[in-house]
Amino acid sequence: MLRRRFALLAVCGLLLAACGGTGTTSTTGASGSAATKASTASAAPSVLNIAYTDDPTSLDPTKTPSVSLVHSLIYDTLVVQGADLQYHPDLATSWTIAPDGKSITFDLRKDVTFSDGTPFNAEAVKFTFDRIMNPATASPGKSFLGTLTSTTVVSPYVVRLNFSAPYAPIFNSLSTDFCAIISPTAVQKEGSNFGQQPVGTGPYMLKSWLHGQSITLVRNPNYKWGPSTYYGSNTGPAQYQEIVFKDLPDENTRVLALKNNEVQISDVPATSLSVIQSDPNVQLIKTQSQGITYLGFNVSRAPWSDPKVRAAIAHLVQRTPIVQVGLGGLGVPQFTPIPTNVWGFSKSVASQEYSYDPAAAKSILESDGYTMGPGGIFSKNGKPLSLQILTYTTEPYPRVAQVVQNQIQQGGIQVSIKELESASLLALTPTGNFDSILIAYGWSDPDILYYFFDSANMKTSDRVHLNDPTINALLLKGRTTVDPTARAAVYKTLQQDLDQLAPWIPLYSTVSETGISKAVAGVQTLPNGSLLLLNAHPASGS
């Protein structure tokens, strides 16, 4: 779903890390002074346990289709986005944008080393971006770098990014872990195994990875360059000696582990909210994601290549019941591919989206040559209209898929569901051997639509295989138009066109409830739900 330091406790799917809403950074547990005092301790305390639901595909940020909290603890980026929605220094100290917008020159920190001892410098930045841009790498991050053509080392600690045309969302992209800076030495040493033995400049290092069980990170004792935008004066080594991510795909198991203090941080499903709300040892944080769960159709495969069939199905979907039944109310219905809390969303387009109208769906299908047959199922040329939905094995996806299945079946269309592990599902979509997918994304800039709908990405991230010249042109215009007003107009038109084509049926944005043990203090959160763990430490008396 794509934002740095995202509170994605479920390290899964296409929740490409989302970016923040408005507001200020908050801190759980002890006061800032207590956190400051803890940060001066000579030895970092014990272990912080966090629940997650699915193994990452890779811990190589250049090659993974999804990034997570684990990635953000291992790596740093050139810039970060603060609670003010502005971009601030991280590994870069400052930058200059050329008058024509075709280059950005970054001054870099001189006091940073990778956890393997490799110096961080302009050569490392160039190595990272050259690797992302190399077609042989097949990096999802390449799409997020837009019109980038090359990276130039100006001096040991000055690097310049060169573009063929201005690229409006570049700072958003640079702040994501897809563009995290990696150790050239480690990549050259590990080769294709780098994703299992990652090396970055972040506050934690990989200690062990037991696939399907846990990921253990150990504190980087040399870390002293945390972004002050997040941490104020507390930018030194992390407080916890280790952070253990425990793979707990079952919701009830995660909640029980949280109650028993076997994990100190976990998502809390709607079905368990009352249990956690009454627990005096756990606090809850509620946030709305900047992403969308959607039903996407493979538009290269009949009959889903027919926009009338897609429109008919769109008229059968009721978003509010999906949120209530599938999510226990923890969601916000969405009607365009850009969620309501992301810049570029068009309220006027959302109001024109296909509404729930079974009669309209029936009329569309009949006008398209379908007739109602035995069992109340539409068919054409003797073939029943049958849809298979692919989705993830982890909740709430199966639950949501069942609600969607029931709604569409009531309109005379057979629907089946097939659940796959996230890596398997994402690997399948480029083949085109599927009907539809029910998955999610998260991102803070509407340029994410280029990633999903531009035909140049057909073999990677254009999962619905849309190939439309008008859409391609709008996507390109959106990412090269720097003026915000003009750019917003482009995305309004794009939303209108996509809603009419209906390669996706947007369903909802999730509202997350994250449980944090009161035995833990100093966990900072951004309004988008991002967890900042550098200053997390045991609460006083725990």
Structure commentary:
- 27% of the residues lie in helices and 24% in strands.
- It has 542 residues and is of the alpha+beta class.
- The protein folds into two domains: 26-281 and 518-538, Periplasmic binding protein-like II (D-Maltodextrin-Binding Protein, domain 2), CATH 3.40.190.10; 291-511, Dipeptide-binding Protein, domain 3, CATH 3.10.105.
- Strands 12, 13, 14, 15, 19, 20, 21 and 22 form an eight-stranded mixed β-sheet that branches. A four-stranded mixed β-sheet has the order 2-11-10-9.
- Helix 10 (307-314) runs antiparallel to helix 13 (358-367) and helix 11 packs antiparallel against helix 14 (397-409).
- The longest helix is centred in the last third of the chain and has 18 residues, at 484-501.
- The two termini are 35 Å apart.
Outline of the structure:
This protein is an alpha+beta fold and 542 residues long. It is 27% helix and 24% strand. Helix 10 packs antiparallel against helix 13.
List the helices and strands and how they pair.
Blueprint: E1 26-27, H1 32-39, E2 47-52, H2 69-74, E3 79-81, E4 87-89, E5 92-97, E6 103-108, H3 122-133, H4 141-144, E7 148-155, E8 158-163, H5 170-174, H6 184-190, E9 204-210, E10 214-219, H7 228-231, E11 242-247, H8 251-259, E12 265-267, H9 273-277, E13 282-288, E14 291-297, H10 307-314, H11 319-327, E15 331-333, H12 347-351, H13 358-367, E16 371-372, E17 378-380, E18 383-384, E19 386-392, H14 397-409, E20 414-420, H15 422-428, E21 436-442, H16 448-453, H17 469-480, H18 484-501, E22 504-517, E23 520-521, E24 524-525, E25 531-532, E26 537-538
Parallel strand pairs: 2-11, 19-20, 19-21
Antiparallel strand pairs: 1-24, 3-4, 5-6, 6-8, 7-8, 9-10, 10-11, 12-22, 13-22, 14-21, 14-22, 15-22, 16-17, 17-18, 23-26, 24-25
Helix pairs in contact: 10-13, 11-14, 17-18
